[in-house]
């Protein structure tokens, strides 16, 4: 299976599948989702904004996500994973608090004092650069759904097949360009998958 050259090319391919929408709100999950969402917003002729999310890591191994939180929403946990680790949501309360602070910092960095656009009664497209476990996307979708939109679409270039299937319970539609069986990490499906900085995100938002 061919790789995406980079996030911009992946976003252009994804945009081709997002034509049947009416005046949507496009929300990208920083940081990587913003680069994917730029060509989508341009193709649809709409503004681009961010919906900030943070992974909640397992304290002994923070790279292992046991949940996530999105701005405007409550923490969403992988309860079965927590049980296997012998933990509860209360066990990671300190991590949640740390991530709330980082989430607030990023919201201010990306949006300043400007609130999220109103989502009630609108079509909303949530964009990320890929789905592995889907924890941050799940938190984002639940936060969006709480705002009573008319329709919610999750759009990603690539996603683990089981994750894409599970997130269909959280969105009206999940669109993925590819859903490979042999999925190990999002980055393996891109030729160039550079880490983005806050400055990169701001530059991308200004480019739309």
Automatic annotation (TrEMBL):
<dbReference type="InterPro" id="IPR029057">
    <property type="entry name" value="PRTase-like"/>
</dbReference>
<keyword id="KW-0328">Glycosyltransferase</keyword>
<feature type="domain" description="Phosphoribosyltransferase">
    <location>
        <begin position="11"/>
        <end position="178"/>
    </location>
</feature>
<dbReference type="InterPro" id="IPR000836">
    <property type="entry name" value="PRTase_dom"/>
</dbReference>
<keyword id="KW-0808">Transferase</keyword>
<dbReference type="GO" id="GO:0016757">
    <property type="term" value="F:glycosyltransferase activity"/>
</dbReference>
<protein>
    <submittedName>
        <fullName>Phosphoribosyltransferase</fullName>
    </submittedName>
</protein>
<dbReference type="Pfam" id="PF00156">
    <property type="entry name" value="Pribosyltran"/>
</dbReference>
């Amino acid at each position: 299976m061919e790789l995406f050259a980079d996030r911009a090319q992946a976003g252009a391919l994804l945009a081709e599948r997002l034509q049947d929408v009416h005046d949507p709100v496009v929300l990208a999950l920083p940081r990587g989702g913003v680069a994917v969402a730029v060509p989508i917003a341009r193709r649809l002729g709409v503004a681009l904004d961010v919906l900030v999310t943070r992974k909640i890591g397992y304290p002994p191994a923070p790279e292992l996500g046991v949940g996530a939180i999105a701005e405007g929403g409550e923490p969403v946990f992988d309860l079965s994973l927590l049980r296997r680790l012998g933990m509860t949501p209360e066990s990671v309360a300190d991590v949640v608090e740390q991530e709330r602070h980082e989430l607030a910092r990023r919201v201010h960095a990306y949006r300043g004092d400007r609130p999220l656009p109103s989502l009630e009664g609108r079509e909303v497209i949530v964009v990320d650069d890929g789905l592995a476990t889907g924890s941050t996307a799940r938190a984002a979708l639940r936060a969006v759904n709480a705002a009573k939109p008319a329709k919610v679409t999750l759009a990603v270039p690539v996603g683990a097949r089981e994750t894409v299937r599970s997130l269909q319970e959280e969105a009206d539609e999940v669109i993925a360009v590819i859903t490979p069986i042999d999925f190990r990490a999002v980055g393996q499906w891109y030729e160039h998958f550079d880490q983005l900085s806050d400055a990169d995100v701001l530059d991308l938002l200004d480019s739309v």
